Amino acid sequence: MKRIAVLTRDCAGVNAAIRAVVRTAAGRGVGALGILKGYEGLIDGLTVPLTRRSVSGIINLGGTILKSARCERFLSADWRGRAAETVRRLGIDGLIVMGGNGSLHGAHLLHVEAGVPVVGIPATIDNDINGVDLALGADTAVNVALDALDKIRDTATSLERIFVVEVMGRDCGYIALQVALAGGCEEVLIPERDYDPDRICADIKAGNAEGKVSWIIIVAEGKARAEDVARAITDRTGFETRVAVLGHIQRGGRPTALDRIMAARLGRAAVDALLEGCTDCCVRLRNGVLDLWPLDKAVLPKTTPVESDYRLLKLLS
């Protein structure tokens, strides 16, 4: 294997992983190319050479130096074929794809349909890759959201308000539940479980009767809109409610130490996997161990037990 290429989506820790891939490859005598703008760039042949020097000083940067873009064309087998032609034309012997379900599914299809050697690195703030304990970027996203929440709590306590805080998480409540636990919140609404607005409002009224003057509810965007939840609480309780939608700040920020270290380990492991002839798999962290996991299993819906942590949240609130 003489040349590998790297394709990315954006989240904290990806640049650190790019650095690890490029420098591991260089140490093994293998050249590296960066694919610009994700699968769009792979189809169009947009690349940049990556060397030890070109990845200097990026370990602490959020996002991705290779840029990222959604690619509707890649949903078509014809365009995926064009992407595979790019791989062959550029002399790419193996492709490392960093991203979430969509990116890893695309890598799987490239291998199945065109025989492209691929290894994935789970990188998504939602932490929704099946069989993976922790994806790259998730820890940073939780800490970014938690920092914002701590500031919101200052206001909620001072003004004696109920705050409904919306965080990212379309199909997975990982960020919401982690932030709610770490932030000492009173309630969390996540896609993995149903919620009862009447019970929540009854709890608020009961707490208020006992002298509780502030309340913070975390909502995952895939479960409900914060504005709708806040309106329902005000209508049922008569108490003032405020909304904060954290949005895309959760995708940015300097990666935490955990994400940087994990990026180093995953990046090295991905290069080694390609050099050992492994393909159609991702490198993953599972029960504290780094191993390989088939992509066709990684892209299945993830089922995460949440009841234990939810009960703990309610016990401590």
List keywords for this structure.
single chain, 317 residues, alpha/beta, Rossmann fold, 2 domains, 7-stranded mixed beta sheet, 4-stranded parallel beta sheet, 11 helices, 43% helix, 18% strand, elongated
Describe the structure.
The chain has 2 domains: 179 residues, 3-Layer(aba) Sandwich (Rossmann fold), CATH 3.40.50; 114 residues, Phosphofructokinase domain (Rossmann fold), CATH 3.40.50. Helix content is 43%, strand content 18%. The protein contains 11 helices and 11 strands.
In the sheet with the most strands, the strands line up as 3-2-1-4-5-10-11
Assembly state here? single chain
Name the helicity range: 40-55%
CATH class of the largest domain: Alpha Beta
Give the ordered list of helices and strands.
Answer: EHEHEHEHEHEHEHEHEHEEHH
- Give me the CATH fold name of the largest domain: Rossmann fold
How far is the first residue's CA from the last residue's CA? 55 Å
CATH architecture of the largest domain, by name, is 3-Layer(aba) Sandwich
User: What structural class do the secondary elements suggest?
Assistant: alpha/beta
Which blocks of ≥5 consecutive residues have pLDDT under 50? none
What count of helical segments does DSSP give?
11
E-strand count: 11
Average pLDDT over all residues: 95
Biggest beta sheet attributes: 7 strands, mixed
What percent strand? 15-25%
